[in-house]
Amino acid sequence: MGVTADGSDSYVIGVDYGTLSGRAVVVRVRDGKELGSGVFEYPHAVVTDSLPADLAGAKNGTAARLPGEWALQVPNDYRDVLRRAVPAAIADAGIDPAAVVGIATDFTACTMVPVKADGTPLNELPGFANRPHAYVKLWRHHAAQPQADRINALAAERGEAWLPRYGGLISSEWEFAKGLQLLEEDPGAYAAMDHWVEAADWIVWQLCGKYVRNACTAGYKGIYQDGRYPSEEFLAALNPDFKDFVSTKLEHAIGRLGDAAGYLTAEAAAWTGLSEGIAVAVGNVDAHVTAPAAKAVEPGQLVAIMGTSTCHVMNGAELREVPGMCGVVDGGIVDGLWGYEAGQSGVGDIFGWFTANGVPPEYHRAAAEQGLGIHEYLTDLASRQAIGEHGLIALDWHSGNRSVLVDHELSGVVVGQTLATRPEDTYRALLEATAFGTRTIVDAFRDSGVPVKEFIVAGGLLKNKLLMQIYADITGLPLSTIGSAQGPALGSAIHAAVAAGEYADIRVAAAAMGSEPGGIYIPIPENVAAYEELFREYRTLHDYFGRGTNSVMHRLKAIQRAARPSFAAAAEPAAAEPASNEPAAEEVSA
């Protein structure tokens, strides 16, 4: 395995699509060695305030303001990752592109793209560029919470068999809630849309010319369980016009993880500099592909991919119903095991928000004088504190709660602040809050009969040693970090190797190509005891604000929505598209 016909090494490419950028890595097939990488930052980043003026044709350079809780992206930014990051990675590796035998991608989920039958995104059609619902809805688009609430209430009332597989609640981040929001707020765009596609599958479609839904997002985000979706009767009860959502907008052939979805087209070969006809793996999710990269594919190994948000994934030998989980899917990570997923909607995002908005200028100046970033500076100050010294408890809900409450109407809280509270105090309290959130997830698994034996961390936040020790102490679990700086991209490369026929399956490929640990953190007994007391206080606040005892957060969200302007769908009729479904001018010129 891992050599070409002439006996030289063969390579694969993994492309990780994150929230703000796409990263490509070149990996040697025989041993998983990472030889080169390339990064491309999305020019339009995350669209939260107004549509991009360069696309929406806004007058005076300003587009209409979006309501709160919206998070959109521009699909052509994803294509540009293939055009820029992949060639850069090949150049960095210094390899012959002809030696690359496969490519695979992973994506944030649930990130949805409304498209025509040929895969053209709606926002690229004439008349749709100024309609917010024609754009990509990023995973952290939370404006579909009212639709999610209705889905959950109806499913509970009807006793739908699929609901316990998702811990009893469907998230506003997922396919059905976002699709129902699109229908109800812009029925013209909904009617014009032929497919409601996970970005994980859309980018594979761009590479190989075939639309194949991946088993991972179909199961976790698309309510696909035991070979079927929710019934038409259920969907019609939500909204009569939603009755055929599955059959007309969603349902499609589902590909197994690690299989080839198709083969690189001539157009995609020109974008990437790779050879036409190489294997393109079925799409996947950034968190789930990271488990093989960390060699964590056996039951009880909980992998947390910690970045702007955190996704927790783990295999289990048996099916259990775990409250507040994002889902449990047969073969959702590797064949033969049940894949469990949980998560936190905000982690690194919370730390970034605080440093941008809650830290005075003199701290930024002091950090710069010491040659440190603001996060490093605050971490150093916070590390000097004894546990509990700051006198604070925080709730990590600044971007809502994914697990175990599944409620994006919740918001952040810091309790205990006084006139003596310093930025490093609040910073450490926020670090600890995210660890308490993970501890809540670990306890939910254990209480439901899904044992958690070890904790493995991937993602950008593993570089913070204080944070890693806090997580070990609060969870009481031995913690190791993945040695690769590009865990998801490496995981995708492993899937590419399997799709290219270099290895028999994901487990075998993971054993050969996965990363060794980069660091190990053992819980310190006295720290574990000290945090146990604080965790009890966290749980008190968690249940008080999150389980209906006090619904002030929901009331504040309602007041905020009423105060912010809303938009109306653009006046152009849905039929304002070319009969031939030709791409928009931007795509033709790209």
What does this structure look like?
With 590 residues, this protein is of the alpha/beta class. Strands 1, 2, 3, 5, 11, 12 and 13 form a seven-stranded mixed β-sheet that branches. The protein has a seven-stranded mixed β-sheet with strand order 16-17-15-14-20-21-22, sandwiched between helices. Helix 2 crosses helix 10, helix 15 crosses helix 16 and helix 17 crosses helix 18.
Largest sheet: 7 strands, mixed
Whole-angstrom Rg: 23 Å
How many helices does DSSP assign? Answer: 21
Number of strands: 22
CATH architecture of the domain at 295-558: 2-Layer Sandwich
| CATH fold-level topology of the domain at 295-558 | Nucleotidyltransferase, domain 5
Low-confidence stretches are 568-590
Topology record:
Layout: E1 11-17, E2 21-28, E3 34-41, H1 53-56, E4 72-73, H2 75-93, E5 100-107, E6 112-115, E7 136-137, H3 145-158, H4 175-185, H5 187-192, E8 195-198, H6 199-208, E9 213-214, H7 215-220, H8 232-238, H9 245-250, E10 254-255, E11 260-263, H10 266-272, E12 279-281, E13 284-285, H11 286-293, E14 301-306, E15 310-316, E16 327-330, E17 338-344, H12 348-357, H13 361-369, H14 374-383, E18 393-395, E19 413-415, H15 423-447, E20 454-458, H16 465-475, E21 479-482, H17 487-499, H18 506-513, E22 517-521, H19 525-546, H20 552-563, H21 585-589
